[in-house]
Amino acid sequence: GIALNQAPKPAETAVRSSVAFTEEMKGYVTFGETDFDTGYQQGRKDGNYLMFHLTISTADVDRFVKDPAHDTDDVTGWVRCDALGGQLPVEKGHFNLFVDQQDPAFKKMLYRLFFRDSVGNAVTLTGFKRVKDDPGHDLWSDTTTLFVRLLKGHVQEAEEASAPLLGTGILMIQPLDFLRQLTTFRAEAPGGTVGDRISALARFGRLFFGKLWDTYGRRILSSGPL
Q: 22, 111, 112, 130: which has the fewest C-beta neighbours closer than 10 Å?
């Protein structure tokens, strides 16, 4: 027979759900600049446009919600910047989300994308969103604004402080792009029900978008991305 400590755990296997979605963010950067806002403003004047198109997925929503500090399982896509040579494929990508233990309403989302410019030089895009999820803050601005740096080389987090900086700027999601992004969410729950998929989608969406999900998330549940 099966030993008691080896008994299967139906709850873990029955509701294991995955979520994937596509995100586009667009903005401006300035090469040689260290300040995010200045990088955006000057980049806009100079026409140094930068955007990315990413598909982000996590294979286990429960694990992500309980311990969001771990990476999502897969980040694929491309970065577009004419100054770096046009549309450039992401070789490897990471997305993390951290919840402040002292203030659960505060979250920080971290992006790290490895790619190469058109002549083969390694570049890292690293970025963060700061989200204060309470009624007194501008939720739209928080959740849809990414402060980015471009670094020389493929740079891990521990190496970032000493890595050569190429430039800085800000990327954003416009309202219509945000609504389009919501329609890209997909949930899977092998062996589960539609209810399991809806639950996974809602838990991930609420963690990722906070109160914006409560406002707009029902749109995608009613539009049937499941």
A: 130
CA–CA dist 183, 221 (Å, integer): 9
> Dihedrals φ, ψ of 34, to 5°?
-105, -20
Find the largest Cα–Cα distance for the chain. Answer: 72
The pLDDT tens digits of the residues spanning 160-171 come to: 999 999 999 999
Structure tokens at 43: 């980049």
Strand 18-31 vs strand 186-188: parallel, antiparallel, or unpaired? Answer: antiparallel
Q: Which tokens sit at 118?
A: 């058109």
CA-closest candidate to residue 88, choices 47, 120, 112, 127: 120
Quick one: residue 120, left, alpha or beta (phi over 0 = left, psi -120 to 50 = alpha)? left
**CA-based nearest residue to 17, from 79, 69, 74, 60:** 60
First to last CA, the chain: 39
Give the list of residues 6+ apart from residue 198 with CB closer than 8 angstroms, or none: 187, 221, 226
